[in-house]
Amino acid sequence: xxxxxxxxxxxxxxxxxxxxxxxxxxxxxxxxxxxxxxxxxxxxxxxxxxxxxxxxxxxxxxxxxxxxxxxxxxxxxxxxx
Amino acid sequence: xxxxxxxxxxxxxxxxxxxxxxxxxxxxxxxxxxxxxxxxxxxxxxxxxxxxxxxxxxxxxxxxxxxxxxxxxxxxxxxxxxxxxxxxxxxxxxxxxxxxxxxxxxxxxxxxxxxxxxxxxxxxxxxxxxxxxxxxxxxxxxxxxxxxxxxxxxxxxxxxxxxxxxxxxxxxxxxxxxxxxxxxxxxxxxxxxxxxxxxxxxxxxxxxxxxxxxxxxxxxxxxxxxxxxxxxxxxxxxxxxxxxxxxxxxxxxxxxxxxxxxxxxxxxxxxxxxxxxxxxxxxxxxxxxxxxxxxxxxxxxxxxxxxxxxxxxxxxxxxxxxxxxxxxxxxxxxxxxxxxxxxxxxxxxxxxxxxxxxxxxxxxxxxxxxxxxxxxxxxxxxxxxxxxxxxxxxxxxxxxxxxxxxxxxxxxxxxxxxxxxxxxxxxxxxxxxxxxxx
Lengths: 81, 438
Fold this sequence. Notes:
The structure holds 2 protein chains of 2 kinds. Chain A is 60% helix and 0% strand. Chain A is mainly α. Chain A has a single domain (2-79), classed as Orthogonal Bundle (Non-ribosomal Peptide Synthetase Peptidyl Carrier Protein, Chain A), CATH 1.10.1200.10. In chain A, helix 1 packs across helix 4 (68-79). Chain A is globular, with a radius of gyration of 12 Å. Chain A starts with a helix and ends with a helix. Chain B folds into 2 domains: 18-47 and 295-396, Aspartate Aminotransferase, domain 1, CATH 3.90.1150.10; 60-293, Aspartate Aminotransferase, domain 2 (3-Layer(aba) Sandwich). Chain B contains 13 helices and 14 strands. In chain B, helix 2 (60-73) packs antiparallel against helix 10, helix 4 packs parallel to helix 5 (138-146) and helix 6 (159-168) packs parallel to helix 7 (193-203). Chain B has helices at 8-19, 60-73, 88-101, 112-123, 138-146, 159-168, 193-203, 225-229, 268-271, 278-293, 295-314, 334-346, 376-392; strands at 31-34, 37-40, 43-47, 105-109, 129-133, 150-154, 176-181, 206-210, 237-241, 251-255, 326-330, 349-350, 352-354, 365-369. At the A-B interface, helix 2 of A face strand 6 and helix 6 of B.
């Protein structure tokens, strides 16, 4: 869980660095619905995140990810492999 | 709760698009007059967006062979390839395609879309990995979804990102299949295939190249990008279509793998659909001969591509990165793209309106494709029409008039502000749901 929280911190930090000025992001934040980002921004953001953690998130897993917490769990799982 | 209620947002977007004028998703030609002209709503239009690269849809020999086939063998096979749908022509076409590519085998599919659907969903199974370029055509995305392999997307035309993602797989069991396209259908850019083939060799992966837009277009013999880049021996699967340079409909996969033919009894989109009618097989056989025997077709195509690209670039339009038969113009906004497309249709030029999320970097495009069948005058007329509308809409500036005796500089004014959209844009594109067909 510690690792998960670390990953969430990184995700929240990276969302904060986007030029969209998004505040108040947490594990329950829905990436598509709550952040108001278009699909292109989300994809570039996910690719930057993949590079940061040195993982590739397969497309079927991406499809299941809704919240920041889901994204962190997927990355933690892939890191643990 | 109606079963179609979930489409309400899409319905609203579509209605808004149609309110702007013509409906780009249901253009209905009264009649095709030639590879380069059609009648649309009672008026003659130049066809500048039909992927009819070699103009073979009206080739007299192709038509004669198709007509003879329909008279001799009937209008359809009424069966799948594994039942009653394989005729001598299907087998002959597969031998000819294999010979064209210097491969052991080829399989013919009923569309190019189904070729990708069938091969991708079958050759990579559970435990295997498919690595696809992020800008891949919808048929590649759909083929991946139909299968059981893990699918990983890499940044468009980025061999380093591909290598990183192969490295991340570490010692995971299973095969790796890399999927790229010869010419990408939205911007007309080619894959860096030499570099991708090197990555493929380094990591012991397999390589599939979709030559849908490059067969008959690139390479000394018209085999496509793999021939042009000199890496044909590194390509394990070549996907192609009959619906572009070959002027008909259908698709194929050619391969040199010894066991390739086992796919005929494993590949469901091959096994469970009706085979192509004999008339199509006959015209494609003849079109293949035309590609082999008439390199002048490619020379004319490339000269026309150069003429359109240079003509538009000289007027200041923002185009794709390479001169190829696909010439796309970046639009500053959806509104301008839709207005531009409608005005061009009114001016007698048909091309494709490509909207996000189907476009790279979500930039709206006016996408054109040239043909060997276009005359220089048709291309010049199209450039003039595009330029005139581009200036009216402020997409490009009118050229500053030169100072001459008697012209007062203060009388020269009123050029519109530049409204060019994407300059340097990040990699990757939307959903891969491109409207281009396979």
